[in-house]
Write a structure and sequence with these properties.
Elements lengths: L7 H18 L31 H12 L2 E6 L2 E6 L2 H10 L1 H4 L6 H6 L11 H15 L2 H6 L1 H20 L4 E2 H18 L6 H15 L4 H4 L5 H5 L2 H26 L9 H11 L8 H15 L1 H16 L1 H15 L14 H13 L9 E2 L4 E3 L2 E3 L4 E4 L1 H5 L44 H18 E4 L26 E6 L8
Helix pairs in contact: 8-9, 9-15, 9-16, 10-13, 16-18, 16-20, 17-18, 17-20
This protein binds protoporphyrin IX containing FE (HEM).
Keywords: Heme, Iron, Metal-binding, Monooxygenase, Oxidoreductase, Signal
Organism: Zingiber zerumbet (Shampoo ginger)
Protein name: p450 mono-oxygenase
């Protein structure tokens, strides 16, 4: 019998089939354990993006979770996102398996603006761990926050006297605008010092940057189409802004280097970072670019968040006169003899604390926290989460979930007095406005101190009314789409002075 030699095409195709079999058998992909993820329907190319069109992302994701479950996978463009919408899921990702999920994915805007993601919020690994330590020990810890007491007193006092001037002529105050100016001034002076020449220029530029950076990057959803960000001008525009910011920050650092004399004045945040850089005791040395990235974080994380929360609190109170009266009664009864409020008075206002908690429950400034990326393949609630998966936690939906909150959509600060002993410190996983675990907000004390002081002074010194012709039912409570969940329409209120300030306030 003659042996037939196979032809070349037959040889090639046999070889290919063999290759496929070998790949299947020895695939490096982890074996799938547990159930498949529920996945909303997909369209070619865009994946599930159509489910998000026309709605705010956290609203759309809550609606999808109601249909598909507390853990679901969405393909957004070319990127898979796993969305968690239960407290058990949040607990697993943010706490139980924190070490695996305390990483951020890459983002075009963060890479361009924050010096290759070398800020606190978007860096990773050993470098991030060190920045986080610097934050806790030096930049945003209780001691440093306390050292800015006179800065807050001055800036909040200035706002109160502007409001008082408006009250004298019955003029409405645009709360959103004024509160953003307040938090910007506090963060800029805490970072740059009180006498720095660059403040105004920096504030104008960073406002533009934050607006732009919260826009849509095609490259983040379609990594193979990063060129689109160049073609649309998105990357170019961001680079232009970055250059402007960089020049201002360079000048500021030079100014600091020239005037650092170890004098009496409190260290500002740039002083602290320069000192740590020069001392040279850091495990991972930091550069001037790293310092600049950290300063940018203070603005991105610390201004709108605080201002928006105060504006939401005032909006909710104005819609519920009895709640407003109760909050005013608390501060007025406690402070009427003294006639003004200092930071040390604030902890006694327990109802006011409930107002703040209730505001953050219903209006967390970052409704989906910041995205996480898993390092190793692991299992969460029975689902296999492959290494490299991107995760989002819908804390906005957790805060409004009737499984966890009675009368979930109502603003009721008294729920925190009636046995609902929940805190936002990262242990109650249905209430996570600051996140939880090792990537929890680094500026909580800084933010809350300004927030509670300003709100208590608003309630103590002024009565508030809607402008002429506006009724409670006209107030639009919808949110805008942006870096943080702010009001779509700024709140305008007419103040009338109830308790004048003594000159020292
Ligand atoms: C009402 C005020 C604030 C709220 C509700 C808030 C909320 C948050 C949230 C939800 C995160 C992400 C947590 C996560 O991914 O798990 C975060 C991160 C962060 N926040 Fe805040 N924030 C506030 C104020 C501030 C202030 C005043 C600063 C600084 C001056 C600040 C600095 C930061 C930083 C640096 C991070 C990144 C932490 C990291 O990735 O390690 N925040 N914040």
């Amino acid at each position: 019998m003659e042996l037939q030699v196979p032809s070349l095409p037959v040889l090639l195709s046999s070889f290919l089939v063999l290759l496929i079999i070998i790949r299947r058998v020895f695939s490096s992909k982890p074996k799938h354990v547990g159930p498949e993820f529920p996945t909303p329907s997909r369209l070619p190319f865009i994946g599930s993006i159509h489910h998000l069109i026309g709605k705010l992302p956290h609203h759309a994701l809550r609606d999808l979770a109601r249909k598909h479950g507390n853990v679901m996978k969405l393909r957004l463009g070319q990127v898979d996102q796993i969305i968690f919408s239960s407290r058990e899921g949040a607990q697993q990702v943010l706490k139980a398996q924190d070490a695996n999920f305390a990483f951020r994915p890459e983002f075009t805007a963060a890479k361009i603006i924050a010096y290759g993601q070398s800020d606190i919020a978007f860096s990773n690994g050993e470098y991030w761990r060190q920045l986080r330590k610097i934050c806790v020990m030096e930049l945003l810890g209780a001691k440093r926050v306390k050292s800015f007491v006179s800065l807050r007193k001055e800036q909040v006092g200035r706002l109160m006297s502007d409001v008082s001037n408006a009250a004298a002529i019955g003029k409405p105050v645009n709360l959103g605008e004024r509160l953003n100016e307040l938090t910007n001034s506090i963060v800029v002076q805490a970072s740059f010092g009180r006498r720095c020449q660059q403040q105004k220029k920096f504030m104008e530029t960073i406002k533009e940057v934050i607006k732009m950076a919260s826009g849509f990057s095609v490259g983040d959803l379609f990594p193979s189409l990063q060129v689109v960000d160049v073609l649309t001008g998105f990357s170019t525009q961001l680079k232009k802004y970055h250059k402007k910011l960089d020049a201002i920050l360079d000048a500021t650092i030079k100014e600091h280097q020239m005037t650092r004399d170890g004098g009496e004045e409190e260290e500002d945040l740039i002083d602290v970072l320069l000192r740590l850089k020069d001392e040279g005791n850091l495990e991972v040395p930091i550069t001037f670019d790293n310092i600049k990235a950290v300063v940018i974080d203070m603005f991105a994380g610390g201004t709108e968040t605080t201002a928006n929360t105060i504006e939401w609190a005032m909006s909710e109170l104005m819609l519920r006169p009895s709640t407003l009266q109760r909050a005013q009664k608390e501060v007025r009864e406690a402070m009427k003899d003294k006639g003004y409020i200092e930071e040390t008075d604030v902890p006694q206002f327990t109802y006011l604390r409930g107002v703040v908690k209730e505001t953050l429950r219903l209006h967390p400034p970052f409704p989906l926290l910041f995205p996480r990326v898993g390092q190793e393949t692991t299992e969460v609630l029975g689902y296999t989460i492959p290494a490299g998966s991107r995760l989002l936690i819908n804390v906005w939906s957790l805060g409004r979930d009737p499984r966890y909150w009675k009368d979930a959509d109502s603003f009721k600060p008294e729920r925190f007095e009636e046995g609902v002993n929940r805190e936002f410190k990262g242990n109650d996983f249905e209430f996570l406005p600051f996140g939880a675990g090792r990537r929890m907000c680094a500026g909580m004390t800084f933010g809350l101190t300004t927030l509670e002081l300003t709100l208590s002074k608003f309630l103590f010194h002024f009565d508030w009314a809607f402008p002429k012709g506006v009724q409670a039912e006209d107030i639009d409570m919808s949110e805008s789409f942006g870096a943080s969940a702010s009001r779509k329409v700024n709140l305008l209120l007419v103040p009338s002075l109830r308790y004048p300030f003594p000159t020292l306030d």
